[in-house]
Design a protein that fits this description.
Blueprint: H1 2-19, H2 27-40, H3 46-62, E1 70-79, E2 82-88, E3 91-92, E4 96-100, E5 107-121, E6 124-136, H4 140-153, H5 158-169, H6 177-185, H7 196-211, H8 217-235, H9 239-256, H10 263-277, H11 285-311, E7 312-314, H12 317-344, E8 346-348, H13 354-377, H14 384-406, E9 412-414, H15 421-444, E10 451-453
Parallel strand pairs: 4-6, 7-10
Antiparallel strand pairs: 1-2, 1-5, 2-3, 2-4, 5-6, 8-9
Helix pairs in contact: 1-3, 1-10, 4-5, 4-13, 7-8, 7-9, 7-13, 8-9, 9-10, 10-11, 11-12, 13-14
């Protein structure tokens, strides 16, 4: 795994150098020199310096550095009233660029567009001009077919339909602003994006289907991966989707080639591939939150979980599970705290407690919605009314809980604090030092006799 960490470090250095990040003082220059020195002092590390240069050249080939003017070919994702420009002239851009949607349904489009006006506010660009040609994405028809099936299944239940589209197809344009705010305030916004939860569910469902229909061990995994690839391509390879897709693909191929699954290696492989495909995602909030949360689960939580298990053994499995869920949510909140403070000027305090109730109920709801979608795609609509009654009951309970949790004080504190990157650096240095101390204490002294609670 150390090789993967070095490759990722070389890639990060290449991105930072390419971005020409200007940081006050000489700290950044010293950081780069230190990294290069570390690479050079060992002969075997010379390959990583070469990789750094290769990555730097690669970034020049795949990123757009031109002006936002004239006639350009734009690759756009329309979602609701706006469209997000993902690529310009088939190259990625570091800018957040939006374009008004003039009535096109959700999906991916290639536009030949003459840019005539640019508005910039808070680092966000909005472009206006003349549309000369538009080509719809080749997979949009599949997505529209799935969308129609969801709308038919939840006909007359607008709120459920909107939630289902967001959770299963990634369409969030119709979510009410107040409802979206409550999800963010309670820390449950990850339930209305395509996450590892849904990808894992898709893999399990297809494997179960093929288990009784296909006898070839490798073929059922290959077909599962093929269907997973089509699904992810249809909803679009955003940062969160790409992360979960890569991780799921690694798991599937490890089964095909009888390799032992290593979640930590999968994490770094996913990091490297994501940054190579989407270079500017490194500075994207969803990238930071997504990988920050998963990294916390893989590398930080086990340390606290061992400490918890050693110090306090609770015989009631249900209570023990609740406390471990709260501990996991708290660890994730600690590790992603600077991201919220830096980008949103909010300080999460007790929002991690909402996950104890919100995640199990939200997970069950998403599982049922996906099952309904899958059955309807295959033309099985006989059970729609039964599923609708069950989903409606769970959704109403889930919605009520969200409203209740949102009223709890101090879930998040809104501040006007604009922190400097140095604060973030020192914050994670302190966290890393604390984790190392706990590991050292565990190895050298062990933990004392645990407290037993009935």
């Amino acid at each position: 795994m150390s090789e993967l960490i070095r490759i990722f470090s070389a890639l990060i250095c290449a991105v930072l150098l390419y971005m020409n990040i200007k940081i006050t003082g000489i700290v950044f220059i010293l950081l780069i020199i230190t990294v290069l020195f570390y690479f050079f002092i060992k002969e075997k590390n010379l390959i990583y310096v070469i990789l750094l240069l290769v990555f730097y050249i690669y970034l020049n080939l795949v990123t757009y550095n031109g002006d936002l003017s004239g006639e350009r070919k734009l690759f756009v994702k329309f979602d609701g009233r706006t469209g997000t420009v993902l690529r310009i002239d088939n190259r990625y851009t570091d800018k957040r660029i939006f374009i008004n949607n003039t009535g096109y349904p959700y999906g991916f489009y290639t536009l030949t567009y003459k840019i005539q006006q640019i508005k910039k506010k808070n680092g966000i660009f909005t472009i206006n001009g003349r549309l000369k040609e538009i080509k719809e994405g080749k997979l949009n028809f599949i997505r529209n077919f799935m969308l129609q099936k969801l709308e038919n299944a939840f006909d007359g239940e607008y709120d459920i339909s909107v939630f289902a589209k967001a959770a299963v197809l990634g369409e969030k344009g119709n979510i009410d602003e107040e409802f979206n705010r409550m999800f963010k305030n309670t820390g449950l916004s990850h339930l209305i994006v395509i996450s590892g939860l849904l990808i894992g569910l898709i893999i399990i469902v297809f494997l179960k289907i093929f288990e009784n229909t296909i006898y070839s061990y490798k073929m059922k995994y290959i077909l599962t991966w093929s269907l997973l690839s089509v699904y992810c391509a249809v909803i679009g390879f955003s940062v969160s989707v790409l992360r979960t897709y890569i991780t799921g693909s690694i798991m599937i191929f490890s089964k095909i080639f009888f390799e032992e699954k290593d979640s930590r290696k999968s994490f770094f492989i996913s990091l490297i591939v994501t940054v190579m495909i989407l270079p500017y995602s490194l500075f994207d909030i969803s990238f930071q939150l997504s990988y920050g949360a998963v990294g916390s689960i893989l590398f930080i939580y086990p340390v606290f979980e061992r400490l918890y298990s050693a110090k306090c053994r609770i015989k009631d499995n249900f209570i023990n599970h609740i406390l471990k869920t709260a501990l996991l949510s708290f660890v994730i909140q600690i590790m992603t705290f600077p991201v919220f403070l830096y980008n949103f000027q909010t300080m999460p305090v007790f929002s991690f407690l909402c996950n104890i109730v919100g995640i199990p109920l939200g997970t069950l709801l998403i599982q049922l919605i996906f099952l309904v979608l899958l059955l309807n795609v295959f033309g099985i609509e006989l059970f729609n009314k039964i599923f609708l009654l069950i989903i409606k009951f769970i959704f109403n309970a889930f919605e009520t809980i969200i409203y209740f949790l949102d009223k709890i004080p101090l879930l998040q504190i809104n501040t006007e604090i604009h922190i400097h990157w140095v604060f973030i650096l020192f914050y994670y240095i302190i966290i890393a030092a604390g984790i190392q101390f706990l590991r050292y204490y565990e190895i050298k002294y062990g933990y004392k006799k645990p407290l037993s609670i009935k």
